[in-house]
Amino acid sequence: MADEIINRVANSKLITVNLEDYYPQGHRVLFDIKDWLFEGFVLREKDFRTQVSEFDWSQYQDAYVALTCSSDAIIPGWAYMLLSIQLEPFAKKIIIGTLDNLETAIYQDIINDLDISDFKDKPIIIKGCSKKPVPQNAYIMLANKLQPFAKSIMYGEACSSVPLYKKK
């Protein structure tokens, strides 16, 4: 009779944290204001305010929005603030930047709100591969948040993890 196969990983105290599990659903939108500028470069306040007031912002219901201007125009801060005030009743999150900046900001909120009390003095593996667009910054933010609490932090899979930190 063959020896019984024992899954030592399943029986260990290792805790796997998969950031993909925290990926929030919702449409990501890059809102480029270039088309609202005169000749793509000049913000005319009256025209801009008219476009903002006449625009249907409800189409961004439950969306994550990154505000940007793809032209070399100099956009005053109040313009982005005006857009965000219109988006606020509808969008889940609004930032100025790229879609990558948006994902990082989304994960920053998630990690800041993450209850890590169950990870105290435990060995942690931060799962590395993801099918969803988890930003690299999220892994750094998570590792930094876990470090004061975890017994150890590894990256990857239980079968092939890379050690990152071990409490002394």
Describe the structure.
With 168 residues, this protein is of the alpha/beta class. The protein folds into 2 domains: 8-24 and 103-166, no CATH class; 28-91, no CATH class. The chain contains 5 helices and 7 strands, in the order αββαβαβαβαββ. The protein has helices at 8-11, 45-54, 77-87, 99-113, 136-146, and strands spanning 15-17, 28-32, 64-68, 93-96, 123-126, 152-157, 160-166. The strands form 2 sheets. A 4-stranded mixed sheet has the order 1-5-6-7, with helices on one face. The chain has a 3-stranded parallel sheet with strand order 2-3-4, sandwiched between helices. Strand 5, helix 5 (136-146) and strand 6 (152-157) form a beta-alpha-beta unit. The chain is elongated. The mean pLDDT is 92.
Strand-helix topology:
Blueprint: H1 8-11, E1 15-17, E2 28-32, H2 45-54, E3 64-68, H3 77-87, E4 93-96, H4 99-113, E5 123-126, H5 136-146, E6 152-157, E7 160-166
Task: Give the N-to-C terminal Cα separation.
Answer: 44 Å
Q: Roughly what is the average pLDDT, rounded to an integer? A: 92
Tally of strands = 7
Count of all domains:
2
In which order are the strands of the major sheet placed?
A: 1-5-6-7
Helix content: 25-40%
Strand content: 15-25%
The low-pLDDT segments are none
Specify Rg, calculated over alpha carbons: 22 Å
Major beta sheet summary: 4 strands, mixed
SSE succession: HEEHEHEHEHEE
Number of helices: 5
